[in-house]
Amino acid sequence: MPRTSAENDRIRRATTEQILQTALSLFCEKGYHSTSIEEIARQAEISKGLLYHYFKSKADVLGALVDIRINDVLVVMNTAKTKPTPAAQIRHIAEGALADVQKKPDVFRFYLNLFSQPKLDPVIATHSQKLMDEQHRQFEVQTKMFKELGVTNPQQRSLYFSSTLQGTMLMYSTYPKTFPLDAIKAQIIAEFCNDS
Questions:
Q1: Are residues 43 and 104 in the same domain?
Q2: CATH of the domain at 25
Q3: Is the pLDDT reported for residue 2 higher than 60?
């Protein structure tokens, strides 16, 4: 019996997810350049030809992963904007970012590594720039939240908040077993998410 359109869509989504999860795991473990399409296909338990049916190149796989990362950030920021007060919005950003790094510290390190790659590599440069552009847009949204909170210098406060979050995420991703994430999170929320 032939498969239905819905079944074909389900298989396509599952295979795409399998490829992307495998690629992300290998990129985190070995780095982008040290991972081959052959390894991704082998670990995803599909043929190389089938992988090429879904993605034209390893760069396309990376592009899809960057798009997913951007979407994850947008979900947190868009949900934050629905919160009733600027303090609640900022709290949601902090909690979302820290929950994300707690679940996937190696993934955070991988995306951080993309930012620090040499700009001479055109593949990495394109995707890291896309991440930076989105980060800048979200920084502007966050700065408006601090302005609505009534702080004296909202841009500087937003920069300090972002730096604090990024530093915390880096420390946790480096020392996930010993870094006191819950205590630091409470301190960040107390410092930045106060209505007064």
A1: no
A2: 1.10.10.60
A3: yes
Q: Are residues 111 and 178 in the same domain?
A: yes
Domain that residue 36 falls in:
1-55
- What digits encode the pLDDT tens for the residues 61-118? 999 999 998 998 899 999 999 999 999 999 999 999 999 999 989 888 888 888 777 6
pLDDT tens figures, 29-68: 888 889 999 999 999 999 999 999 999 999 999 999 999 9
The answer on 47 and 62 residing in a single domain is no
Tokens representing 108? 């955070």
Q: What is the CATH number of the domain that holds 70?
A: 1.10.357.10
Q: Do 43 and 77 have their domain in common? A: no
Number of domains in the chain: 2
* Full DSSP string of the chain: -PPPHHHHHHHHHHHHHHHHHHHHHHHHHH-STT--HHHHHHHHTS-HHHHHHH-SSHHHHHHHHHHHHHHHHHHHHHHHHTSSSHHHHHHHHHHHHHHHHHH-HHHHHHHHHHHHS-TT-HHHHHHHHHHHHHHHHHHHHHHHHHHHHT-SSHHHHHHHHHHHHHHHHHHHHHSTTT--HHHHHHHHHHHH----
